[in-house]
C-alpha cells in the first residue's frame, strides 16, 4: 500500500510479513528517448524516471508502485530491469515485517553505497 512517510513524502509499505527473495511487483515501463528525458528533467517527473537500456541512454517511466519506492543504502528490496520485455521487477532481499516500508537502492544494486545525485544537494 502507499502511505505517507515521516521525511520522504509517500512510500510503499507492506501490510503483511514477506519472506526474503519474494517477488513483490512486476511493472511495465514506458520507454522514452534521450530527447524526452531532457524535457522530463525540467519537470517534477525527473525524480520518478529510471535510466534505461544497456547503455543507459534512454529512460523509462515505470507504472504501478515502482516510482514510489523510496531510496535507502540499506534497502530491503532490489529491482531488476528487463530491457527486452520493458519490465521492472522488485523482490525482497531479506525478511520484511508487516507495516515496514519497502525500499530500493537507487544505485541499482541493493547494497551499493555510492553517493547519489541528491546527496550533493
TrEMBL record:
InterPro entries: SET7_MeTrfase, SET_dom, SET_dom_sf. GO terms for biological process: methylation. The keyword Nucleus does not apply. Keywords: Methyltransferase, Transferase. It holds the Pfam family SET. One of its GO terms (molecular function) is histone H3K37 methyltransferase activity. The keyword Methyltransferase applies. It comes from the Bacteria. Residues 1-107 form the SET domain. CDD domains: SET_SpSet7-like (cd10540). Transmembrane segments: none annotated. This is Lysine methyltransferase. It comes from Flavihumibacter solisilvae.
Amino acid at each position: 500500500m502507499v502511505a505517507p512517510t515521516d521525511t520522504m513524502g509517500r512510500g510503499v509499505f507492506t501490510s503483511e510479513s514477506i519472506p526474503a527473495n519474494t517477488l513483490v511487483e512486476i511493472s511495465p515501463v514506458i520507454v522514452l528517448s534521450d530527447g524526452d528525458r531532457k524535457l522530463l528533467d525540467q519537470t517534477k517527473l525527473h525524480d520518478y524516471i529510471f535510466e534505461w537500456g544497456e547503455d543507459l541512454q534512454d529512460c523509462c517511466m515505470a507504472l504501478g508502485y515502482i516510482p514510489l519506492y523510496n531510496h535507502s543504502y540499506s534497502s530491503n528490496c532490489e529491482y531488476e530491469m528487463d530491457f527486452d520485455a520493458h519490465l521492472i521487477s522488485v523482490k525482497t532481499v531479506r525478511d520484511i515485517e508487516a507495516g515496514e516500508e519497502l525500499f530500493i537502492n537507487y544505485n541499482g544494486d541493493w547494497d551499493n553505497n555510492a553517493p547519489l545525485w541528491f546527496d550533493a544537494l
